Amino acid sequence: MMDFVNIFLSDSFWAASLRIATPLIFGVLGALLCERSGVLNLGIEGIFVVGAMTGWMAVWLGAGLWGGVVVAALSGALFGLFHGILTVIFGLSQHVSGLGITLFGTSVASFTYRTALPQVSSPPRIEPFRALDIPILSDLPFIGPVLFQQTAMTWLALFLVAIVWWMMEKTALGVAIKAVGDNPDAVNAQGLSVIKLRMGSVIAGSALMALGGAFLTMSAFDAFFFGMVNGRGWICIALVIFASWQPGKALMGALLFGMFDALQVRLQTQAGAIIPGQIFLMAPYVLSIIALVIVARKADYPRALLTPWFKGQR
Amino acid sequence: MIQITQKENQSRWVSLGIPIVAAVLSLLLAAIPLAFTGASIPDAYVQMINGVFGSLFNFTEMLTRATPLIFTGLAAAIAFRAKLWNIGAEGQLYLGAMAAVWVGTGMVDGPPILMIPLVLAAGAIAGGLGMLGPALLKTRFGADEVVTSLLLNFIILIFLQMMLEGPLKDPMGLGWPQSEPIIDNAILPQLITRMRLHAGFILALGTAVVAYVILAMTVWGFKVRAVGENAAAARHAGIAVNKTYLAVAMASGALAGIAGVSEVAGLKGYLTADLSPGFGYTGIVVAMLAGLSPLGVIAASLFVASVFVGADSMSRAIGVSSFIADLIVSMSLICVLLGGFFARFNLRWDRNKGGGS
Amino acid sequence: MTKRFGSVVASDVIDLDLQHGEVLALLGENGAGKTTLMNMLFGQYTPDAGTVHVWDDAGNETILPAGQPQAAIDARIGMVHQHFTLAENLSVLDNILLGAEPLFSLVRHRRDAREKLTRLMDDSGLIAPLDTRVGDLTVGERQRVEILKALYRDVRILVLDEPTAVLTPQEADTMFASMRAMVDRGLSVIFISHKLHEVQAFSDRIAVLRHGRKTGEMVTKDANTGSIIRMMVGEDLKVPPRVAGVPKKPILELQDIHTSGAGGGQGLSRLNLTVRGGEIVGIAGVSGNGQSAFAGLVSGLVQPQSGAMSVSGKAMPKPNPKAMLDAGVGRIPEDRHHDGIVSAMSVAENLVIERLDAPDVQTRGFLRKTQIAAHAQDLTQKYDVRGPGIEARSALLSGGNIQKLILARVLETNPDLILANQPTRGLDFKAASEVSRRLFEARDRGAGVILISEDLDEVLSLADRILVMHDGHLQETDSRDRTVIGLMMAGGRVT
């Protein structure tokens, strides 16, 4: 029992929670942007893979770490553009288009990687983001290691939470995005472009999603493996609903999730003899399902989610 | 700006032709990634075609590869017809395989006429239950079945590993995480000597026909279609919508489960964690290519299986990454989507003066 | 202005002009093309031919670029749509400011906006709570927000599409008074209506549309009622005087019913009602007062939380649609596309969808296709359902024909009780009188009919008994006076 409590007292646990939460923060922010404007983007899993591969590849080819971040974001934006054309402009099924983007994105990334780097015994590695050592702040007890020894990408994620929150709550653009996800006719009648608002949200949201993948290959690890995303994108889709499409709650949801994941690793080492390790591996997915079920009934889905809009339709 | 208006008449021939055009188009588009590999493009295509049609073995390999795809394709098609988004076919396939192995590796024995239906039934029930969960969460709690069925896949895969290292482990398996072999009486018989093609293929064809009949000609099929097209109107008309979702979920999961049984009891003979290279997900593409029609699923499965088998062969021959198969298949999905759009809508470019709103 | 939707000509070379400071009424029955014309003015639709010319106060002429709401807004034209264009998840203030403030500015000038709006609300008499979520407002309040949206943009030309469809008679009078006040300040107004008496009372000039063409134009005070009707409908409207029904045994009894609202809306409380065979019971009221919950109850979609419901003497404690159908209840839903038909399925399939276990529809679970087709041919002929054939998708049918399909489906089973929810909404006179005729027929054959309608005139012309729904309560009245009933619709209790 004491061992269990001790986990929560160790700063490495909290540091790990934040680190594990980071890709989810990017993903949930991205999904939130898309869905607030009325578009479900099930391409997130594939976009994570694309971001992971292109970001890593850019660094591998000499672009530098931030260059890799930019490349990853742009690739995500490109796939977002694709999804947007299919769903916003052509009004095709958002479910099918999203799944298609996931399959397409994953296969493009895998094919490109394998073609550029033929089979080797162990995947090549890059020099990833290192933990930032901020003078004085990093030496603070407890908060120091937890908060101030994260990598730059985690800081970027936290910064983006603030930016997205500010944009949605304090700017006219945020009002417009929220409106287009509720009633596109309202937006159109006021002279704004439904198409531009939705496309912009999907493209920007997808860029954020890609950053989630890039974090995996450029910060958490230093190489690209097939299957490394492992459902994180799908978990974000569940977490968005749990977060009620709000950036602040998104951060909390991702952190909560990160905590559970960090917890299961530590519990495995403690209870590994009695409970098979796989039970702990299941935990993140089971938790996501439970989180989803809890909020499902009352979830305030954007009213126009999944409904395509055409100008001048009778 | 682009003006989009719905076409008044949708020709049946166009609906039929679109998947074919999409399939051909995606094969042609494969030339683009091929160009980046430095391989000779005509050579690549020849190798692909050879990989499917070059010999009886190749051809039967393709049919064998199509067998689980027909089942998972049917699973997706039936579910999607009711607008029940079953993305969990991959997990349901493994549930079916596990059930087959649990029952068919010596727990009971009997003549094949008893054993084969037994393992099939076990797999169907296990798979059906696998989708029943997400369906119940949907009807009782309004939880989106896309996410729940998807996440369940990961859970089931981990569970599978647990089983293969535990209760289902073959003590004679030299330490590898694999199950005991299916007993002879439960094996789906070979169809052609020295080929891997097994009775599962015939079963798949028959199942597709039965699915078509049920969907088009029975009251239950009518209800499924009505619920899928407009659940509110169906409910208003007295159709038990939730019961329909649950029944569809069980049927869909059962079909995916049978895919698992077919692979274990017909092809491999025992269960490992890599039994399925994504048949569940590929089944979704198959269903979409088939326009959600059970008979179309047969054709679409043959196409997709050909792409994978052909690409495998090409990969071995000229060293191009076999991921090209996934590329081609996912591109065909997108092409079908776009094609369906162009069949239903007219596009017009309007020359309006400058900047829109 | 000309506009085609596929093979349907919605606007057939229409010329229209609006003078400064006048109220022009655009009159026509449902489907005449009034909304289409105005949507082209406002840029929601792009015309196939024709131009819009606008003159500003200095006399400068602009030709509006087609299909751009922003151009209309820049020309200071505003439109209040029949189906409100409001974002329910946002506040009143945000809805008004949507599109009225620069999208990419880093700050919002909300204080200035509030000041301007307070002034506007004082001037026009239209008050709305600025920080309340639109989703929490009543229908009348939402309409005020719609008008304020236009006023905030400094419109000179205001188009109102069927503004009184959702108001009580008193609220309608107030709204027209506000309109007059604004016209006196320099506003020019076009209002769309299909109600002749309203148009005659509140407009300066009338333009009549029929089947997409302008059939007449006149100064209101010179207008002759008979000639207007002929311009609207093409013939003299003979509305036969209502013959009273002969009530028989009770078919539906509702005792002390409480329900929660359908989809979070208004629920029912302490509802009592008895409907007998052979009578038409009309329920008047502004939508949003419990009509959806009531219709849901009788359709079997909404469960009563307490109270008792019985049909033909049989208690129904846990109703569902199938049970109500089996008990002899026929339902014509309010939203025919959402609840009435499966638009992707054929006419024949939609005709049998409520009777899937009947022996003439199926045998041992298999559909009897030939029987179903013969049945459909029969019904479409008998009820004059026109379209591309019984195997065609029902989405291809016009609104009037879809309603006839639903009528056919409901009436052919000879139900004991018919629930008709807004049955003539969106239909032209001919189709609407067809529906009324069928309801009278059913009543005279012994069925009990419940008519729910926003249109008070319809209730007055069809119903044997009149009840008013307000805030989830039903109150019966013997009065046939519009003012009295109007007061009840607004919640006034009449002794």
In CATH terms, what is the fold-level topology of the largest domain in chain C?
Rossmann fold
Largest sheet of chain A: none
Number of helices of chain A: 13
Domain module count of chain A: 1
- What oligomeric state is this? heterotrimer
General form of chain A: globular
CATH superfamily of the largest domain in chain C: P-loop containing nucleotide triphosphate hydrolases
Number of strands of chain C: 22
Describe this structure in words.
The complex is a heterotrimer of chains A (314), B (357) and C (495). Chain A is globular, with a radius of gyration of 20 Å. In chain A, α2 runs parallel beside α7, α3 crosses α10 (194-220) and α4 packs antiparallel against α5. Chain A has one domain (12-118, 132-296): Orthogonal Bundle (ABC transporter involved in vitamin B12 uptake, BtuC), CATH 1.10.3470. Chain A is built from 13 helices and no strands. With 314 residues, chain A is mainly alpha-helical. Chain A has helices spanning 2-9, 11-36, 44-60, 65-89, 94-116, 143-147, 152-170, 172-182, 184-189, 194-220, 232-242, 247-271, 277-296. Chain A starts with a helix and ends in an 18-residue tail after the last helix. Helices cover 71% and strands 0% of the residues of chain A. Chain B has a single domain (9-31, 38-346), classed as Orthogonal Bundle (ABC transporter involved in vitamin B12 uptake, BtuC). Chain B is 70% helix and 3% strand. In chain B, α4 runs parallel beside α8 (200-217), α6 crosses α7 and α8 (200-217) packs antiparallel against α13 (294-318). The longest helix of chain B is centred in the middle third of the chain and has 30 residues, at 112-141. The radius of gyration of chain B is 22 Å and the shape is globular. Helices cover 34% and strands 22% of the residues of chain C. Chain C has helices at 34-42, 69-74, 92-97, 110-124, 139-152, 169-184, 196-202, 225-233, 291-299, 321-326, 336-340, 347-352, 369-382, 399-411, 429-444, 456-462, 482-489, and strands at residues 3-5, 8-11, 23-27, 53-55, 61-63, 77-80, 157-161, 188-193, 205-210, 213-219, 250-259, 268-276, 280-284, 306-311, 314-315, 329-332, 362-363, 366-367, 417-421, 448-453, 465-470, 473-477. A 6-stranded mixed sheet of chain C has the order 6-7-8-3-9-10, with helices on both faces. A 6-stranded mixed sheet of chain C has the order 16-19-20-13-21-22, sandwiched between helices. The mean pLDDT of chain C is 89.
